[in-house]
Amino acid sequence: MLNLIRMDIARMRRMKALFWIPFLFCAIIFLEVYSTKAMYNRMNDIREVASSMDIELDEATADQIQSMTDKLDMKIDVLEGYGSLMPANVFALYLAIFTVLFSCADFASGFIKTIGGQVKRRTQLVASKLVGLFVFEIFLFVVGFAVYTLLCIIFFDGVTFNDPSHFLGYTGVQMILHFCLMCFCSMICIVARNSLVGMVFAMVTVLGFFNLLAILIDKLVFAVFEKVVHVEEYLLMDNITRLNYYHVSDSVSASTALTICGVTAVISIVLSCISMEKKDVI
Amino acid sequence: MAELLLQTERLTKQYRRFKAVNEVSMHLEKGSIYGFIGKNGAGKTTFMKMITGLANPTSGSITLFGETGTGLAKVRGKVGALIEAPGIYPTMTAYDNMKLKTLAMGRYDKNYIMDLLTLVGLADTGKKKAGKFSLGMRQRLGIALALVGEPELMVLDEPINGLDPQGIVEVRDTIHRLATERGITILISSHILDELSRIATHYGIINNGELIQELSAEELRNRCSDRLEITVYNASQQAAPILEKMGVPFQIVNESLIHVNGQTERSAEINTALVTSGLAVSELAVKGEALEDYYLNLTGGARNA
Fold first, then answer.
1. What ipTM was predicted for this assembly?
2. Residue A183 is part of which domain span?
3. Residues of A numbered 104-123 whose beta carbons fall under 8 angstroms of chain B's beta carbons: which are they?
4. B4-221 placed in CATH 3.40.430.10
5. Does A1 lie at the interface with B, CB-CB under 8 angstroms?
6. Under 8 Å CB-to-CB from B122, ≥6 apart: which residues?
7. Does the pLDDT value for residue A86 go beyond 70?
8. Residue of B nearest to A104 (CA)
9. For residue A189, which of A10, B192, A181 has the smallest C-alpha distance?
10. Which pTM does this prediction carry?
């Protein structure tokens, strides 16, 4: 088993996607930091214009500007900023793309035939793949965090790292949820053994098309049985996106998200193992 | 009888209503080179996939190194395989492909990889990507990958398919060296029966999913008896009555060619009889039946073997 993990890590190191996916992720982070900085600058401009023109603002607008511009003099909180990126689709999108490329590579090249017959159980290949994917997830997270911190230092006057324990707890849960997503995408690839099908399913999942389907089912159930079911709340991506850095009204609790995503992951792994073991290698 | 390394008992693979392999009972002796012969779609690859654990049988049993059923998992590592096209990453070098396989088998060592690449003649490919290899080089890399872990049995499915004459010779020599120098038992399928007959010690002939015959090279030689090939004008009209009169068993292949099975010691007598009857014999030659002829006769004359 350890040998297969070593093989998959070595295989991953040879993949071009190992470099271009973090690069694109960092590019998105750059845009995020840059747009935050631009927003701060704009707020500064508004404050300066407002103060220089001595305009009478209504109380609500003045409060809003005040609350937004108050932050401008403060250092940016890196942990809050990066943590808030997690529920956005960006991290999930790049993980899903990599998962498809990584999971389908041995099927597409036929390398699975080279080792598939010589392992004691082919389910070990599923396990080694998932370990490889988890390593990549951590790698992408760390690279993204380092780049985010660096960009914040460059663009802002200073940085702070407030409440690291909350950050670690939150990102830890998000990492598990994202890994569940990777398990699901990997399962699609292993069962379908086709990178195109895998990529389409991964994109449909990450971009929330299943939510539309779920809403449709909700409406259908309501129309027929007059019951409210909220199927979308049981979807993987819905739970990832609704687990916010700071709990807000529409947030999902960490335990609920972990339960739903965990069940999805377990089902995905079982299906992957069955498919790998029972289906012929072609 | 020599020790059996592989034995199958009524092995069957069925896809819905189609039986790709139908109750094949095969016997592979240790140290032999077993030539597996059959036309396209006869069931060779499916059978080999079941042997190597890449496909699950519908019914029947496989006994490999004395293990059967769930015990097969223990001996899978002793079987190296090259099934259809070699499974390699085209964006990686030969060395990197080998590295992955050796890591998976727990045998990673630079010298070991270079030894295997040297054995198949790919040691000097450097940083050239496997995707840019010629077909022959890819096949040899596939063989090198199959050799990782010192397999005692190698299953090679059409390893010389599509190769140029030089490539065929290289791969044939490699296979022969593996069998003679390393004592590896080899199960090999090929369409090129002439090439197969140069290295195989045993044969299995499969047709429509059924193993119709198993025989050793010696048995084949005995069965492939010599014959006379007579080229003569108007064979059926004029030559046939003369041969019938002489009591010679013959077969008219076409208007100018007659095959006389056996009777090679009477070649001069036959020639004299035909010539004295006024027939123009343009050629009379003693020829042995080749593996190809034997196969075609056995399977009913299929031409695409």
1. 0.78
2. 2-278
3. 105, 109-121
4. no
5. no
6. B94, B137, B140, B141, B144
7. yes
8. B89
9. A181
10. 0.78
